[in-house]
Amino acid sequence: MFFVFWLCGSIILGVSIWLRVSENGGKVSGVNIKDFLPAINLLIAVGSIVMVLGFLGCCGAMKESKCMLILFFIGLLLILVLQITAGILGALNTPQIATVVNDAYKEYIPLNTQPDSVKKEIGEMQQEIKCCGLLNGYSDWGNSIPTSCNCTDGDQDHPCVKIAGRSVWAQSCIDVMIDILKANCIIIIGIAFGLAVIEIFGLAFSMTLYCQIKNK
């Protein structure tokens, strides 16, 4: 059990350090690593802590050290409490995602008055995630709906709408992004609580071993 924690910490630390010092143009599989540096730094910290805790657990088990086992227990308990707190806060704040995103993009409406550089970025986003407009759909563009809004392969998840003899994406980009963010939040919360179950087993195992050593 303790070796599993040490191994997981080592893997997390190794992968996050590799991403942090990657020299492949700052990109891995086309993803710009610089955009994820805060998350990578957090992974380095988490990997280091988990690896140290695993090491304490292994040494405590082999040497039958009550001190090391209790340090492992306290450290893992703190991680568990923080993890559950973060998961609960994430679940409670998920409904507020729409408000935050809407406030962030409200200043760009109407889109046809924005600089060409902004229009280009929005156009690329529309083609990538199959949407049109930011907040209110195609109406955000006024009478200048760009070709990036053209709906070519609509389906249930990305429906089309007819407007002025054209077929454009029915959903606004904000709606699509909110759906993506909510889906990712659910995945993250699920992983967090899944790991919590494993950590509870680790806590129970370390305390059982501690009590056995104490009874000797």
Task: Report what the structure shows.
The chain is mainly alpha-helical and 216 residues long. The protein has two domains: 2-90 and 188-215, no CATH class; 98-176, Tetraspanin (Cd81 Antigen, Extracellular Domain, Chain: A). The protein contains six helices and four strands. The chain has helices at residues 2-20, 37-63, 66-93, 97-105, 116-129, 173-215; strands at residues 27-28, 31-32, 160-163, 166-169. The strands form two sheets. It has a two-stranded antiparallel sheet. A two-stranded antiparallel ribbon has the order 3-4. Helix 3 runs antiparallel to helix 6. The chain is elongated and about 85 Å long. Mean pLDDT is 78; it is low at 23-33.
Q: How is this fold's topology laid out?
A:
Elements: H1 2-20, E1 27-28, E2 31-32, H2 37-63, H3 66-93, H4 97-105, H5 116-129, E3 160-163, E4 166-169, H6 173-215
Antiparallel strand pairs: 1-2, 3-4
Helix pairs in contact: 1-2, 2-3, 3-6, 4-6
Number of strands: 4
What radius of gyration results from the CA coordinates?
Answer: 24 Å
Main β sheet profile: 2 strands, antiparallel
| Structural class label | mainly alpha
**Sequence of strands across the biggest β-sheet:** 1-2
From the N-terminal CA to the C-terminal CA, the straight-line distance is 22 Å
Average pLDDT, to the nearest integer? 78
Shape: elongated
Task: Give the DSSP E fraction (strand runs of 2 or more residues).
Answer: 5-15%
Q: H/E order of the elements? A: HEEHHHHEEH
Uncertain segments of ≥5 residues (pLDDT<50)?
A: 23-33
Overall number of structural domains: 2
- What is the number of helical segments per DSSP (H or I, 4+ residues)? 6
Proportion in helices = 55-70%
